[in-house]
Amino acid sequence: MQLVPLSDRRITVLFLISWILLASIQVYSILNAGFTWKDALTDAVTTNILLFITCLIVSNSLRYYRPATRTTLYLLSICLIYTSIALVINHHLLVYLLDNRSDYLTFVSQTLPLRSGVAFLIICWMTFVNVLWQSLQERMEEDKRKADTETLAREAELYKLRQQLQPHFLFNSLNSISALIGSRPGEARQMIYQLSDFLRGTLKKEENQWVSLTEELQYLQLYLSIEKVRFGHRLNTEIECVSECSELQLPPLLLQPIVENAIKFGLYDVIGTVTITIKASVIDNILEIEVKNPFDPETTPPRSGTGFGLSSIKRRLYLLFARNDLLQTHTTQNIFTTLIRIPQP
Amino acid sequence: MKRAIIIDDEPLARMIILEYLQDYPQIEVVQECNDGFEGIKAIQQHRPDLLFLDIQMPKINGFEMLELVDQPLSIIFTTAFDSYAIKAFDAHAIDYLLKPFSKERFDKALQKWIEQPATPEKTQSTSALLETASQLPNQQDRLVVKTGNNIRIIPTHEVLYLEADDDYVKIHTHAGVFLKSQTMQHFENTLDNQQFVRIHRSYIVQVQQITRIDPYQKDTYTAILKSGAKIPVSRTGYGKLKTVLGI
C-alpha cells in the first residue's frame, strides 16, 4: 500500500510541475513590481523550496503519525503552525540572502498577508490530500478484506450445504442392510456397495466442478435404488430426460436433495404407492428440472418451501447465481412440484 | 403367549425385528403395520402386550398415534435418529432402540420388558413422554384427533378456540367441534403461546380470531371472535392477552 500520495512517481512529477508554475507566477509578479531578476529569483526559489520542504515534512509526519482524531480544527491548527514556522524561516533567509536591503524587505513585509495566505493554502491542501488519500487507502484495504472474508464464508457455507447428509437416511439404510444380511446376504452386499458409492459421491465433489446431467442422474439412481430397497414397492420413480439435456451442466449434489425432499414429503404424507417424477428440459439455454410428488392437501397445508431440504437448495442457488427465482414450488390438487432452473455457463 | 405388534413403514425394519424375535417363542407377532392408522386399528383389535413402534411414519408419527390410543401399552421405540425424541425417551425411561441395533441390544430391551410389564406407573410415564414429545418442533403445528373411526389432522391455524369439558377439551374449528381427551394445561403448554392465549380457566383462544373485547362485569371481559362466538375473559386472562397483543 502507498502511504503518501508522493510515493507515486506520476503524482510527484505533477506536483513539481505545478510548483514550477507557482514559482514562475511569483517571479513574474515580483518583476512587475519593479525588482531585478536576481531579487525575483532569490525570493521565489527560497520561498518555494521552503514550502516544498514543509510539504514533505507534513506529508511524512502524517505517514508515521496518524492523529486518531482527524478533526478539521485539529488539522487546521497543525497547518497554521507549519505555515508560521515556514514564514519565519523564510523571512530570516531572505534577510540573510538579500543583505538587509530595506527596499526589498519593505516589499516583503507589504506582501506578507498574500505570502502567508498562499503558503497556508498550499500546506492545508497538502495535509488534506494526505489525509484523504490515507482514508481512501484504508477503505480500499478494508473493502478487500471484507470481500475476502465474504468469499471464504461463502465457500464454507456452500461446503456445509453440500455436506448435509441426512442422518435418517444413513441410519435407516444401515438398518436395512442389517436386516438383509441374515436372509438375503447378496442383496445386503449390493446395498453396501451402493451406499458406499453414494457416500463417496457426496464427499468428493467440489462446488466449482459442475457435472453433466447424465452424471448427476446416474448418481441419483444410486440414491433411488437404496431408497427402493428401504421402502420396497411403495416407491416408484419416473425419469424423463430429453437427449439435448444430457450434456447440460449443473452444480453437483443439487438434484439429489430435491428428490430426497420429494420422497420424504411423498412417502410420509401418502399411504400406499408413491410415484416421484423427474423431468428435465431446456428453455433459452436454461436447464429446467421438475420434480413432482403426491401429497395430501387435507392434512398437509401447502407451504412455501418445505423444511430444510428446499431452503438449503434455495440458499445454494442464491450463492451461486445471486438470484432468488431459480427455485419455485407450486401445488396442483394433490401434486407438489419443485422446479429448479440452472442457467448454463 | 404374549402378543406383539410391529409398526414401521419400512418392510426390512420389520423383518429384522421378526428375525430377532425368533428366539422368543413366547411372543407372537399378531400383526405388522405400515403406518399409524393401521397401527391404531391393530391395537384396538388385538390389545397387544408389546408394541414395537417407529417414530417417523406416513401421515401421523408414532407419538401422534399414541395420543389416540386410550389403553396402557408397553412400548419399545425403534428409531433411526432424532435427538429431540431421544430426549423424550431419556426423560421418561421407556426403552428405545436406535437403528441399526444389535441382537444384544434388542435382547436387553426385551429383558427390561419381561422384568417389568405394564404397570400404572408405566402408563403414567407414557403420558409424560407424550407431553414431552408434543413439544417437538414438527408436532407443534397440528393436532391429531379421532372422530369415531376416522382420524383427523387439524392444522393449528384452523383452530378457533379450545373449551374445557370435564376430562375432554373441545376443539372448535370452522369444520366443527372435535373432542380430545386431554387437559387444558397440556394445550397451554404445547401450543404456540404467541398464537394461543388462555384467556380463562376454561378457554384458550387463537388471538387472530378476536375482533373485539368488551367489558363484561367488574374486571372481566368478553372476547368476540370473527365467527361470532362470545368467550369470557378473566382478569388474569385479560392481562395475558394484553401482553401478547402488546397493548
UniProtKB/TrEMBL annotation, chain A:
Keywords: Kinase, Membrane, Transferase, Transmembrane, Transmembrane helix. It comes from the Bacteria. One of its GO terms (molecular function) is phosphorelay sensor kinase activity. Residues 156-235 form the Signal transduction histidine kinase internal region domain. The keyword Kinase applies. InterPro entries: Bact_2-comp_sensor_kinase, HATPase_C_sf, Sig_transdc_His_kin_internal. The keyword Transmembrane applies. The chain crosses the membrane at residues 12-31, 43-62, 74-98, 118-136. This is Histidine kinase.
TrEMBL record, chain B:
Residues 3-114 form the Response regulatory domain. The modification 4-aspartylphosphate is found at residue 54. GO terms for molecular function: DNA binding; phosphorelay response regulator activity. Pfam families: LytTR, Response_reg. SUPFAM superfamilies: CheY-like (SSF52172). The keyword ATP-binding does not apply. Keywords: DNA-binding, Phosphoprotein. It comes from the Bacteria. The keyword DNA-binding applies. Residues 143-247 form the HTH LytTR-type domain. PANTHER family: STAGE 0 SPORULATION PROTEIN A HOMOLOG, TRANSCRIPTIONAL REGULATOR-RELATED. This is LytTR family transcriptional regulator DNA-binding domain-containing protein. It comes from Xanthocytophaga flava.
